[in-house]
Amino acid sequence: MESNKVFIDSCIWLYTADNNNPAKQSATRSFIASVSRNSRITTSVQVLGEFGNFAIRKYNLDAEKVKRYVEHISAFELHEVDANTVFAALGITAKHQIAFWDAVLITTAKEAGCSIFYSEDLNHEQTISDVQIINPFLEGDT
Predict the structure, then answer these.
(1) What secondary structure does DSSP assign to 21-38, as a single string?
(2) CATH number at residue 6
(3) Distance of alpha carbon 136 from alpha carbon 132, whole angstroms
(4) Residue 116 domain boundaries
(5) Which residues of the chain have pLDDT under 70?
(6) How many domains does one find in the chain?
(7) N or C: more exposed end of the chain, with fewer CB within 10 A?
């Protein structure tokens, strides 16, 4: 596990595209910029897909704008998911009673060597499979 390697959940990335909440959008962009100066950010194709889906459905962004956001996010380290990731995620889902897709992301973060998983969707400061979940909006980082 690399202490300076982090994974950012799609729910955090989505705030960068939220024109309806400029304060949170700005805070999130500042947070990501700060993290990128001090850590290696990792993501996955699942995050790219979730971002695209919600940016179009929730924020009504056009596909071309979403593509530019996804290109930006995909410029960070992209960790591939395989069958072993899915098998491990199934074990995490059963053990920790979390949604399967969240377990896939945590497993991906672990496989990529991330020590921190930034998310709003899971329990703040919980550790799952040696990956600590941090809600950056509760940390005072934004």
Answers:
(1) -HHHHHHHHHHHHHHHHH
(2) 3.40.50.1010
(3) 12
(4) 2-134
(5) 1-2, 139-142
(6) 1
(7) N
